[in-house]
Specification:
alpha/beta; globular; 12% strand; Rossmann fold; HAD-like_sf; SNARE binding; 2 domains; HAD_sf; HAD-like domain-containing protein
């Protein structure tokens, strides 16, 4: 009996936090040039530092833009347009992001699809103009590229990142080419629906199913679907999750909290 692994990308295979934070800052300057007019490099550095702390709340890349602006508003009262920014610290963002996000989207009059397109375009421009620096702002977690190269299991990437970026990083940093039909990126549908599609395929019948993810909320969504009861679920504890989420995951019978070294062994 063989194994099928569905792997999240950011936070499981690749630490992209440096790149996504810098791309979000670039995109935020394009989207809201007036707000960033007087922003000095010290404030920009502070925003990028904070972005590493709040990264666990991000489900889809465009949310990085919202976080960049919200962090700026928490620090600069004169430009505040959101009712939630005053007195808001990173702890509050980590705890309440799902409530904060719709409020700021409405108060700033933002559109999800437009932000997704802008974030993709800014990344494309950076990638085209300075490929080496864009690649260098990402890193593959230790041991993962070897594990992917020698994986005896059938591997799929299931990510909210745009497929072309995942593909470029796999090729350049991991030295791995995964066929495009095995990369499910942004706009291919919710992860629970992709897992349903994968398990229904005739060629996957009889395979043992594994899903590795670093977002606890995503794993909880899978647990809610009785149709997905056959998936073995893992929380990658090296990814973008908090100590509290690791603890919570450890108490859920369906979820196994996975170490990076164990993950690399499993794939091989």
């Amino acid at each position: 009996m063989g194994d099928l692994y569905a792997l999240d990308f950011d936070g499981v295979i690749c630490d992209s936090c440096g790149e996504s934070s810098l791309s979000a800052l670039k995109a935020a300057k394009v989207r809201w040039p007036g707000l960033f007019d007087g922003v000095d490099s010290t404030t920009e550095d502070w925003i990028v530092d904070q972005m590493h702390i709040v990264r666990p709340v991000v489900e889809t890349g465009y949310e990085n833009l919202l976080l960049v602006r919200l962090l700026l508003e928490t620090r600069t009262p004169s430009i505040r347009k959101s009712s939630v920014a005053e007195g808001l610290a990173v702890e509050g963002i980590l705890e309440n992001w799902s409530k904060l996000k719709p409020i700021i989207m409405e108060e700033w009059g933002e559109d999800r699809e437009a932000l997704i397109d802008l974030f993709g375009k800014v990344r494309d421009d950076w990638l085209e103009q300075d490929f080496a620096t864009w690649i260098g702002a990402n890193r593959i977690y230790p041991g993962v590229s070897e594990a992917l190269k020698f994986a005896s299991s059938r591997v799929y990437i299931v990510t909210t990142k745009q497929s072309r970026f995942a593909d470029a990083l796999l090729r350049e940093l991991a030295g791995v080419t995964i066929p495009p039909e095995r990369i499910y990126g942004l706009r291919t549908g919710p992860k629970v629906e992709i897992l349903k599609q994968l398990q229904k395929r005739p060629e996957h019948q009889g395979l043992k199913l594994h899903f590795v993810e670093d977002r606890l909320a995503t794993l909880k969504n899978v647990i809610k679907e009785p149709e997905l009861d056959n998936w073995n679920l893992y929380l990658g504890n090296w990814g973008y999750n908090t100590a509290q989420e690791k603890e919570e995951a450890a108490a859920i019978a369906r979820i196994r909290v996975l170490q990076l070294s164990d993950f690399s062994k499993k794939l091989k």
